[in-house]
Design brief:
mainly alpha, metal-binding, Recoverin, domain 1, MLRA protein, EF_hand_dom, about 140 residues, two-stranded antiparallel sheet
Length: about 140
């Protein structure tokens, strides 16, 4: 949801114009071009949803968000298997509370560990959200 709010032009990439507009909507109109450039440099390239999650996870480092995220997933895993069904989870993301767009769901699933049975290893996904992609 935060990514969608910042990606003002809805092109899937956070740009300087997106950041400037977000700040403007929050009432901060004096953000310098240098500040915006510094923010974008943190992504080491275009800031898409996956990069945004990684950056967000890095900013949360030092707190304990992983435990909170795991506890949220456990609500969908009453048997305690450590997995949730991808199709069921996708349906929940598209239809419940702060709904994801189909594009956001696909971006998330691009970095999500899914086994051959179509189940998401949510412990690994929580690690990716809070620490970045395992392959990095």
């Amino acid at each position: 949801q935060a990514f969608s709010c910042i990606d003002q032009n809805r092109d899937g990439i956070i740009t300087k114009a997106d950041l400037k507009e977000t700040y403007w909507q929050l009432g901060k109109t004096n953000v310098s071009e240098e500040e915006l450039e510094e923010m974008l440099k943190e992504g080491k390239g275009p800031i898409n949803f996956t990069v945004f999650l990684t950056l967000f996870g890095e900013k949360l480092n030092g707190t304990d968000p992983e435990e909170s995220i795991l506890n949220a997933f456990k609500l969908f895993d009453p048997a305690g298997t450590g997995t949730v069904n991808k199709d069921e989870f996708k349906q929940l993301l598209l239809t419940q509370a702060d709904k994801f767009s189909p594009e956001e769901v696909e971006q998330m699933f691009a970095v999500t560990p899914v086994d051959v049975s179509g189940n998401i290893d949510y412990k690994s996904l929580c690690y990716i959200i809070t620490h970045g992609d395992e392959k990095e």
